[in-house]
Specification:
The chain is of the alpha+beta class. 14% of the residues lie in helices and 31% in strands. The chain has an 8-stranded mixed sheet, with helices on both faces. Helix 8 runs parallel beside helix 9 (366-376).
Length: 1176
Amino acid sequence: MRGGRFSRKYGSQPNNRFKKGGSHLNIKSPRPWFSLLLGLTVALSLVPGNPAAASGEQAQQAKLKVDSRLSHDLPLPAGKVPGIQAKTATGPVNSEPHNFVPESDSDAITTVIVELKNTPVDVFENQVSSIGKSVQASKVRTEHSKFKSAAEAALSVQFKREYTRAFNGYSLEIPANQVNRLLKLPGVKAVYPNLEYHALPIETSGEVTAQLDKSVPHMGSPEFWEAGYKGKGIKVGVIDTGVDYNHPSIKDAFKGGYDFVDNDKDPFETRPNPNFPPKNGKPYETSHGTHVSGTIVGRGNPDQPGSTGWARGVAPEADLYVYRVLGPYGSGSSENVIAAIEESVADGLDVINLSLGADYNNQYTADTVALDNAVKAGVEVVVANGNDGPGDATVGSPGGSQLAISVGASTPPMDIPIFNSAEHSGLRAQLATFSPDLTPSEQGWDIVDAGLGKAADYNGVDVKGKLALVSRGEISFQEKAINATAAGATGLIIYNNEAGEIAATLNEPGDYAPTYTITQTDGQALKRDIASGQGHVTIGSLHEEDYMADFSSRGPALPDYTIKPDLSAPGVNITSTVPAWDGNYEEAYASMQGTSMASPHVAGAVALVLERSKSERKENHLTPNQIKALLTNNSVVLNDRNGQPYSAQVQGAGRIDLGNVLEATAIASVEETLPIELDHGASSDYKTGSFSFGQVAPGTSVTKTLDLDNLTGDAQAYDVHVDWQAAGEAAPSLTAESSSLSLTAGQRAASLGVTLEVPKTASDGYYEGRITLTDRQTGHQLTLPAGVYVGESYTIGAVTDLSVTPDIFSPNQDGLYDTADLSFTVNRPLKDFSLVAEDASGKIAGTIYDGLAHQPEHRPDIYQLSAWDGKVQTDKDVKPLNDGLYWLTPSIHDSEELLSDESVPFVLDREAPEAALDEPNVKVDEKNPGKGIISGQIVRDTLLEVLPVSYSDAIGVAVLSTGGDGQSAQYDGVIDENGRFTVEVPLTDGENNFEIYVYDAAYNGLLEPFKTITYNGETPEQPVEGTLSLDSEDYSITLNDTFDVAVFFTDKEGKVRNVTKEASFESADPSIVSVDSEGNLTGLKPGTTSIKVTYQGISTSATVWVVRPYAPKTPAQEEPSTAPKVKDEVKAKVPADQTEADPAPNSEEKAPAETDGNSNAGQAAPSKDQKQDKQN
């Protein structure tokens, strides 16, 4: 999995997926040590049988007494020195059943998806006459019966979901060590892992306004509405987090659906639960599906909001069906996604939208197969392309589906904030999520460089009334905002630490200084302004539209190098419907951004086009492939801020334009063949809207066919123009066999060949262009993008996307994180390879996975190895790895090369942290005698030794306290930057038992206490009201002499008593004066300090002088003295309710000392309440 992902998605770093232009661009872009590697701990945490998912269950089985307060995600190093890319020969695909979940020796239960060989029923029915329909259904039933009976007889399986309509097979639970045996059962085609999916939104800040009334008209929807098409009679499915079907803008459109999370017919969103706090910045409750639904079918009126609210979607008269597959925190799994695709096909839907994704760029997953099949069954499928831009090849599954419409995100008409300085103007900014806006000021603000925005960076830096300028990195955006706010900054500007924009979030609402992000280039410009004394800015706004969002994932889709996205749509700052948990829908709208928001715009557009097509063409309406090509043909090509067209791998064909679609009289499409792996053993043809030539070698010639379908039956003539962005004899060329293409009246279609020629001398690179057909009569244009990757520089690794989940684990058989799942992607047929463990020095410690030993060939897809226990195969035997940091690295045997640029790190840590307790083990809090302090020092832990983490990130301390009353509770400690820890615990009458747990992020130390201590004692009396006083406000002591202090307590009724024996004493500087438990002061060296005296939680203090003994001098030696003079007589300070004649309370106590006036002349300091004698 890629680091920085949907948790990966918000402002994540570019992720370059393949080699380009002769330089290596790794599948996993290197990250600094402090960046967070999320790995499959995020991506597969809901897969049954996964250790990360099962931690709570394991904890229950292990009977944990305390809960860990640590995150299991710690910053691991991102990668190693890039190695040489392996060159793996391709070959025919093995037709034998294939397992993408390699067998392990663990009996841990895992969920897999089994695909059977027969064509799914609805796919078959859509391609044949009605006579063959019942035959196919019977064949599938028989196949299922044989497989299920054989599986139940031979294996320990639990069947979960059955698929027959768009996918043929089952999801089932099985011990990991039995998975490979599934291949021997009748009818099995393939076994897939059960992947995790996420909703793909990015919440935005700012005032909530009716943004749909900008994005929806911008794409031309009103032109369809005015023509009488609003989606009436079209069934639209939303496969997502559910829906609040009571929302005024949605309730009349909602017709049904299903909840595959709770397995009932109520697909309502996940409701808030106070027992479940946010995780990784995501709330427990969900709203994503409601937002998506409102964008498609919202029936409100933004001009006159009333009983239907104000959210008006693209197809406001379409019928809405919602299938809940993503549960709490917006996460779910592919088994439910496939089930929802099945159900939507069975329910006769016309179009389905999936604004969800997994962190894989792979076109051969089980859910992608199901989506392609849904299209074959006659259902249009629209998917979000992903939010992992702007790096190359960051498409997320199932966005790479061959037949679905994948959608990127562009900007609708909007006003964006800009900063202006004396030297620079129009510096574009983005307001961070949950940040307030900066109130404009004509005077503007000075800007101050505050480094990385850490708390220490503000030491000595005056930012009050100014804007702090900080770099991205090392700490979270939220921490940067908190630190700037604490320092008094009026606002905060965060500039990127790499090229590109930042979509930042502050994670949760709070009292933040207004926080904006800008690009690295603009941030460096402002730094130069500050250095030159010109650091002053004002804020304004700029109106703009039709730019690609930086977060929008880029193509190509792998491993076939397909152009993705297919097209783009508004997906930035889209305000739509959200649930109203309190039932008040007046403000049940929120702004989000992401390809999740762009995709439903296109799904709504499909509904409009399909309604028109069904109205005009009846049963002969447009197919999903035709609608896809029609939309891409008529998209508007977008240019970047330099006026250059975005690559087709960024925007697809362009931004959707329904106005152009309405005017189109023909469809231009490209004939393609579905890979054999996706079509049950036989290739099938389909049509699409782009020329994806994939990766080719120099010296290659490829011809594809362009078809022109007549929509009106009228005669039409088109000029054909190829705009190819490459020139020169050595550059590839793209040519059409004719410069024109015509349709006669009544002619249904015409075609021409388009040929790509790549000279043998062609340089490695990505080349692209567009083919445009222009109607000679109307000038209307149809556009098809084209692209090709030339040469070995663009060869993706044979094995990529490696991950270890969890990436920190503890194989010590204690039932907690004892195993990890391994996941990897094979990008071409591969026979002989292995996965090895390299230690921190680069030495191979052993083989984790021997590919050839598991199966003769690995086909392109995602593979998952369950429950690895930390053991490796060496030349001699199988042995466990020692604790430490390792890298999981592919090794290609044919070339004897390690693919080090694909390596991912992991840590084994079997031991609990070592610690030492302070003496006494329990210290009574002076201010609150009912509270105890347990403290100590963390000595060592493996995680501290191998990772760049703080003590508090890697280590936790907790005390399970059982008081004299028999009540138990957990109390968590605080660990400082030096490893010192303190835990505050209650002290009750009788015996107090404390179990001290010192644990780490690998879950070591949670089962058995580090130490158990017992504290016996009575709870001291609670502090009472009153005042504390001493027998003097200050004291003067001769060096090496001792002086005793008397302490008096006056209660609220005015009664005074001597409490010297009950008080505690503390010297501020024990090197000057010491004080014992009875209040005896001893002068140790000349100087001034103070003592603190505490009784019953009340404290007072006094100054103490330590002076040298008096030494008489002769008149000749006499010098003026600057030391304070002592009075001849020192009197005790008497409490207010006594007279000087009254005896001191508790007369057995020693009376205040009297001194001879000459004994310390010129040496002692006077009390403040005494008059100083004049010096003679």
